[in-house]
Amino acid sequence: MSGEERTPMTIRCVWPVDCRNSCGSPAHYGHTCGRHLERVRSMVGTLACAWPGCTWRAWDRRGLCDFHRRVAYRLIEPRS
Ligand SMILES: [Zn+2]
Ligand SMILES: [Zn+2]
Question: How many A from CA of 53 to the centre of ligand 2?
Answer without folding.
Answer: 8
